[in-house]
Automatic annotation (TrEMBL):
Its cofactor is FAD. Belongs to the FAD-dependent urate hydroxylase family. Pfam families: FAD_binding_3 (PF01494). The lineage of its organism: Bacteria, Pseudomonadati, Pseudomonadota, Gammaproteobacteria, Enterobacterales. Residues 2-338 form the FAD-binding domain. This is FAD-dependent urate hydroxylase. GO terms for molecular function: FAD binding; FAD-dependent urate hydroxylase activity; urate oxidase activity. Its EC number is 1.14.13.113. Keywords: FAD, Flavoprotein, Monooxygenase, NAD, Oxidoreductase, Purine metabolism. It comes from Acerihabitans arboris. Pathway: Purine metabolism; urate degradation. InterPro entries: FAD-bd, FAD-dep_Monooxygenase_BioMet, FAD/NAD-bd_sf, HpxO. It is an enzyme of class 1 (oxidoreductase). The keyword Membrane does not apply. It catalyses: urate + NADH + O2 + H(+) = 5-hydroxyisourate + NAD(+) + H2O.
Length: 384
């Protein structure tokens, strides 16, 4: 059996490995000449790590993951700790560590494992045809590829999604802009093995350790969409948006490299329940685009890859039947992740200022139990 995967992001690469491991001949076709992930780093929560373990990458993900032993929220002005607690109880409960990871290293790990020789670059899908027994992908350079199954892992602007749903879907602006990058660990900003978040004014500044003594940092600011953006002005912009914030935040703004700081307007897509059509399946952001507020978009893409491969392996009534079962297994899970992230997004970013103030207040009484319960529920909802 042969699978054609469209898109070499974390979803496509994970699907490629999962199907290859189950004996499928698998090829990945990617639109760009060099896969450049949006964003500097990503938190792989234990549900995602378990998927990577399942794919055979247990040692590799541990090697590139940061050591995140505790979690803290701090007041934006005074820098005072509102709550701080260890993450070990979460690890014990869900059975795996979280690993914040630089995106470039994650991407390399996945593509190396899949085998770069079977990743075809500069292959932009422009059409596809499913004749009931095979699927043929047509690329912008005039070439084609045919397989028993096609996986659309072509991200939030997916072209395969149009084929599966029969119409386009609109992305929804979530109301905030995110800046992110990597910086050398400096304990005057935050402890080296802690996920630290400064909160106030509906904004946040967060730092997570990744391997190589680096912090993954991000800043969120509620803003209208479509503002002019340039890396040249990002330090100046951040200084303006974070005027009056405490010394560690100012120090971070001074230390970051503005030319290596990404600026992303955050969107999601209203969840939909059709993930497959005939021999074509959607996976990752093509199937469910979420705001990053619970750090689950990429983890869900890896879950998709695992469930899709298990479904194809476990059922013998044909590809179309196995894909329908993949859809049945995933729709509820991915819908709940998108909606949970949207809810968290609104509280974090001051959509209802009273709710946000109540959340800040609740952090002062947080022992870790409530937050860790919420995280455990999300993680344990995964397939492994
Ligand atoms: P993508 O990574 O978008 O890959 C799609 C690929 O398809 C691209 O390489 C693209 O070039 C290719 N492609 C597109 N169109 C075509 C075509 N027509 N033909 C061929 N190829 C095509 N998730 C987490 O789990 N944890 C986090 O902490 C986290 N933080 C985030 C922070 C931010 C700021 C953002 C924006 C997202 C975050 N996410 C996080 C979400 C995560 O980044 C995505 O869910 C994940 O990258 C989706 O992977 P994917 O492979 O589905 O799509």
């Amino acid at each position: 059996m042969k699978a054609i995967v469209i898109g070499a992001g974390m979803g496509g690469a994970s699907a490629g490995i999962a199907l290859r491991n189950f004996g499928w001949q698998t090829e990945i076709y990617e639109a760009v000449a060099q896969v450049k992930p949006v964003g500097a780093a990503i938190s792989i929560w234990p549900n995602g790590v378990k998927c990577l373990n399942f794919l055979g990458l247990q040692r590799q993900i541990k090697a590139i993951g940061g050591d995140m032993a505790s979690m803290a929220y701090q007041d934006y002005q005074s820098g005072q700790i509102l709550t701080r607690f260890p993450l070990r109880p979460l690890v014990d409960r869900v059975g795996e560590f979280p690993y914040p990871t630089a995106r470039a290293e994650l991407q390399s790990m996945l593509l190396d494992e899949f085998g770069r020789g079977r990743v075809f670059l500069n292959k932009r899908l422009i059409q596809l045809e499913d004749n009931g027994s095979q699927v043929t992908a047509g690329f912008a350079d005039g070439s084609t590829a045919t397989g028993d199954l096609l996986i659309g892992a072509d991200g939030t602007h997916s072209m395969v999604r149009r084929h599966v749903l029969g119409h386009d879907v609109k992305r929804r602006y979530a109301g905030y802009v995110n800046w992110n990058g990597l910086v050398e660990i400096d304990e005057a900003i935050a402890p080296a093995n802690q996920w630290t978040t400064f909160v106030g004014q509906g904004k946040r500044v967060s730092l997570m350790p990744v391997a190589g003594r680096r912090f993954y940092y991000f800043f969120d600011v509620p803003l209208p969409t479509g503002l002019k953006q340039s890396r040249d002005t990002s330090r100046k912009d951040l200084k303006r948006y974070f005027t009056g914030w405490c010394a560690p935040v100012q120090r971070l703004i001074e230390q970051l490299d503005p030319m290596a700081t990404n600026r992303v307007e955050i969107h999601d897509i209203e969840p939909f329940s059709t993930l497959v059509r005939g021999r074509v399946a959607l996976l990752g952001d093509a199937a469910h685009s979420t705001t990053p507020d619970i750090g689950q978009g990429g983890c869900a893409a890896m879950e998709d890859a695992v469930v899709l491969s298990l479904s194809l392996r476990a059922h013998s009534l044909g590809v179309e039947d196995a894909l329908r079962r993949y859809q049945e297994s995933r729709v509820e899970r991915v819908t709940s992740l998108v909606l949970k992230a949207r809810k968290r997004c609104d509280v974090t970013h001051g959509k209802d200022p009273l709710a946000t103030r109540q959340w800040y207040h609740s952090l002062e009484h947080e022992t870790g139990e409530h937050i860790l319960n919420g995280m455990a529920e999300t993680i344990l909802g995964g397939p492994l």
